[in-house]
Automatic annotation (TrEMBL):
It comes from Staphylococcus aureus. GO terms for biological process: methionine biosynthetic process; methylation. Residues 5-79 form the Cobalamin-independent methionine synthase MetE C-terminal/archaeal domain. Transmembrane segments: none annotated. It holds the Pfam family Meth_synt_2. Its cofactor is Zn(2+). This is 5-methyltetrahydropteroyltriglutamate--homocysteine methyltransferase. Signal peptide: none annotated. It comes from the Bacteria. The keyword Cell division does not apply.
Length: 84
């Protein structure tokens, strides 16, 4: 995602997009802070009304327990961001 966001820094993007905010290929559960950092960086370049938060592409490489925990963190980070 960091590479993709860097590309957006060079253009004036005005279409909707859903960016992955954590690496689903890693078994490590991301922290709320890591996801929030990714969201904040994205929102520096993409209007809030055009941005959807997603896990990185696909979840089939992870076990159900890992997916549930990671998505719980993601949802909590998004809820907190919406309260700002």
């Amino acid at each position: 995602m960091v590479i993709l966001i860097k590309d957006f820094e060079d253009i004036n993007y005005d279409l909707g997009i859903g960016l992955g905010v954590y690496d689903i290929h890693s078994p490590r559960i991301p922290t709320k802070e890591e996801i929030t950092t990714a969201i904040n960086r994205s929102l520096q370049q993409i209007d809030r009304s055009l941005f959807w938060v997603n896990p990185d592409c696909g979840l089939k490489t992870r076990k159900e327990e890992e997916v549930k925990d990671a998505l719980t963190v993601l949802v909590n980070a998004v809820k907190a961001k919406r309260q700002e």
